[in-house]
């Protein structure tokens, strides 16, 4: 059981189980918060000409039937034709000439009014044609006398008149009675039905839900989100227990789900859902597949899109598009080895989106008239964003100390500076590493292990020999062996040191941790048998009790032992390839016996005890080694010479 460490001078350590619970609960809470207006939003998506895919909808209460906006606007424009700005007399009306200031006259001309409204002191109104209204200039031209304006603009009365005319237009045209059937399941949404649904949506949004209904709505949403996340956790526990037992994978999964939820939240708040199809939900299966496996990637994608579907305008269409998209992404990107693969995947996703959306609309409406070209533009933007997942691969690698296949391919480039230095300064060890890489990757393929990881790690497993390449026989080219001038103990320690040096060099060159694990474990805790046996023989020849003098631990590697199938395969391939170079004869039988002997020694020494290898795996690995070695050391025919 995990416990919180409260020792003096240290901060409390949060248990890993609590971290995972908090992470998954964060995903659930974000899904609950995701809706733009959970207390008011209309829960249905509808379009004229489309089929009603929900249950039969009936009116829960009486509500008015609102006129379409364009009808209301047209009637208001008709009512405003009787509107004219209001003016008051500034002088005694008797025998007064109606004169407007030049500014007021410009207002009348800009509004294209053919009359004005006169208001007397008793608030009575009457209209006056503009043909009878003057400006000081026209009055002077008419009478020959300078005259001042006799009318002033009454803004308050004008605004009241304008508002009254607007409000005189009724916004409704009838009513829908409670329990009336609005639309039945499978019925096409006609113009009349669309009109009723629009009125219901308006009433629904204006009335909102009661506090009790809001509480139940949030509770239902929260429990549904919790159930979806719990099902994903159950999948991990049942089928991917190693991933569940670690904290880092759960944080990875939760971050991916939360990222897509947050992006969806942003889009729903800013656009009301129209741009939701621009979001690249394919990021989830692609990133998960790159770092883990296809099945987990699909389950995580399914969980993510179902969580988001709780809040999108049309969840049926959303799921119909996004679920198959996850399948397409996984099918088209089995292994990400080249950047160009992302471009092809993006094209496949774009075509799939377009086909699914088009077929869905044809199914519901039977016509292409209701296709929205803007949605296809969203799909194009979606595909372009999918290509940017490459930058996210690098980000997630750094955040979670993961290694993608792209990184492994780059590391396996033997033309890199480190590999070129390795080939020049320790050519024998470099050739040995190449052969081990081939042996190990073939063996990994035979049992379904990660062949690319094994191939790459094999190139670096002996990199520590760069510190003293002359100490190792494969680099001596027939010269004297410096180790033979040391004591057996010192020689053994010098050989063992190449593991520690390899770790140091790998860290210095920023080789990922997953590859450094192979460096540390490729000898496990095995004995440096040559010098160990030599020391025992020396002691016996001197008449000493070897058991009393020699410490076996001084001749053993520090380990750890291999923990995975991949590290175990590298250990076996390393031993088998090295031993094959010291054989006197290469026959099928001698190679078979050598492979069996080397792996049996490792098993008896307990070096493979902590790996998940089965007897069946071991049998296939050994057979692969034998076939590969036979092809390497096959008998070549002797070319005949020309007889004289």
Commentary on this structure:
There is one protein chain. With 644 residues, the protein is mainly α. The protein has three domains: 16-27 and 29-34 and 212-400, no CATH class; 73-167, no CATH class; 421-632, Hypothetical protein af1432, CATH 1.10.3210. Helix content is 58%, strand content 5%. The chain is built from 26 helices and eight strands. The protein has helices at residues 16-33, 69-79, 102-111, 136-143, 155-167, 191-207, 211-239, 241-245, 247-271, 283-291, 294-309, 315-332, 340-365, 373-387, 389-400, 405-411, 417-425, 427-446, 451-460, 488-508, 513-521, 529-541, 546-549, 565-580, 588-604, 615-632; strands at 57-58, 63-66, 86-89, 115-119, 125-129, 151-153, 172-176, 181-183. Strands 5-4-3-6 form a four-stranded mixed beta sheet. A two-stranded antiparallel sheet has the order 1-8. Strands 2-7 form a two-stranded antiparallel ribbon. Helix 18 (427-446) crosses helix 26 (615-632) and helix 19 (451-460) crosses helix 24 (565-580).
Describe the structure using short key phrases.
mainly alpha, single chain, 58% helix, 644 residues, Hypothetical protein af1432, elongated, two-stranded antiparallel sheet, four-stranded mixed beta sheet, disordered N terminus, 8 strands
Oligomeric state = single chain
Mean pLDDT: 88
Strand content: under 5%
Q: Give the termini distance in whole angstroms.
A: 86 Å
Biggest sheet, in brief? 4 strands, mixed
């Amino acid at each position: 059981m995990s416990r919180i460490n409260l020792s003096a001078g240290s901060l409390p350590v949060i248990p890993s189980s609590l971290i995972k619970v908090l992470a998954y609960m964060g995903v659930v809470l974000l899904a609950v918060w995701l809706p733009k207006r959970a207390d008011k939003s209309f829960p249905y998506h509808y379009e004229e000409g489309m089929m009603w895919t929900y249950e039969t909808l009936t009116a829960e209460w009486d509500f008015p039937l609102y006129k379409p906006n364009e009808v209301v606007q047209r009637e208001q424009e008709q009512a405003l034709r009787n509107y004219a700005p209001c003016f008051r007399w500034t002088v005694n009306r008797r025998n007064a000439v109606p004169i407007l200031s030049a500014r007021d006259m410009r207002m009348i001309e800009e509004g294209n009014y053919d009359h004005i409204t006169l208001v007397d002191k008793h608030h009575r109104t009457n209209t006056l044609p503009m043909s009878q209204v003057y400006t000081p200039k026209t009055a002077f031209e008419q009478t020959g006398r300078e005259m001042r304006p006799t009318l002033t603009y009454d803004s308050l009365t004008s605004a009241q008149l304008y508002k009254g005319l607007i409000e005189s237009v009724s916004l409704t045209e009838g009513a829908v009675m409670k329990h009336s059937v609005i639309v039945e399941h499978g019925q096409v949404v006609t113009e009349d039905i669309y009109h009723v649904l629009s009125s219901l949506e308006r009433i629904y949004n204006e009335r909102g839900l009661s506090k009790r209904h809001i509480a139940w709505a949030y509770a239902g949403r929260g429990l549904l989100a919790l159930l979806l996340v719990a099902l994903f956790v159950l999948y991990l526990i049942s089928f991917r227990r190693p991933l569940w037992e670690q904290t880092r994978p759960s944080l990875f999964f939760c971050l991916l789900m939360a990222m897509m939820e947050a992006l969806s939240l942003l889009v729903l708040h800013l656009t009301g859902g129209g741009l939701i199809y621009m979001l690249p939900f394919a990021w989830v299966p692609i990133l998960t597949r790159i770092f883990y496996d296809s099945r987990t990637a699909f389950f995580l994608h399914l969980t993510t899109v179902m969580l988001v579907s709780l809040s999108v305008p049309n969840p049926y269409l959303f799921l119909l598009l996004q679920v198959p998209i996850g399948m397409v992404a996984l099918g088209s990107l089995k292994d990400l080895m080249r950047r160009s693969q992302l471009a092809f995947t993006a094209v496949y996703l774009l075509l799939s989106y377009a086909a699914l959306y088009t077929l869905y609309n044809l199914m519901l409406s039977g016509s292409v008239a209701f296709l929205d070209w803007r949605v296809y533009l969203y799909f194009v933007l979606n595909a372009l964003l999918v290509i940017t997942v490459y930058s996210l691969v690098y980000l997630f690698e750094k955040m979670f100390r993961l290694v993608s296949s792209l990184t492994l391919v780059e590391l396996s480039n033997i033309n890199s500076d480190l590999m070129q230095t390795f080939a020049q300064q320790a050519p024998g060890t470099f050739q040995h590493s190449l052969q081990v890489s081939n042996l190990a990757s073939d063996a990994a393929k035979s049992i379904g292990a990660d062949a690319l990881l094994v191939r790459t790690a094999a190139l670096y497993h002996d990199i520590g020999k760069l510190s003293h390449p002359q100490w190792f026989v494969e680099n001596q080219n027939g010269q004297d062996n410096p180790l033979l001038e040391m004591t057996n103990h010192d020689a053994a320690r010098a050989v063992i040191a190449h593991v520690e040096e390899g770790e140091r060099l790998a860290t210095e060159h920023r080789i990922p941790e997953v590859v450094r694990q192979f460096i540390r474990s490729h000898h496990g805790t095995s004995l440096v048998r040559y010098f160990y046996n030599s020391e025992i023989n020396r002691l016996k020849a001197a008449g000493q009790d070897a058991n009393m003098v020699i410490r076996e631990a001084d001749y053993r590697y520090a380990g750890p032992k291999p923990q995975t199938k991949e590290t175990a395969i590298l250990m076996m391939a390393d031993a088998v390839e090295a031993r094959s170079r010291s054989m006197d004869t290469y026959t099928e039988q001698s190679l078979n016996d050598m492979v069996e002997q080397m792996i049996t020694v490792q098993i008896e020494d307990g070096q493979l005890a902590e790996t998940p290898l089965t007897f069946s795996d071991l049998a296939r690995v050994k057979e692969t080694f034998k076939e590969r070695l036979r092809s390497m050391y096959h008998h070549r025919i002797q070319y005949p010479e020309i007889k004289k």
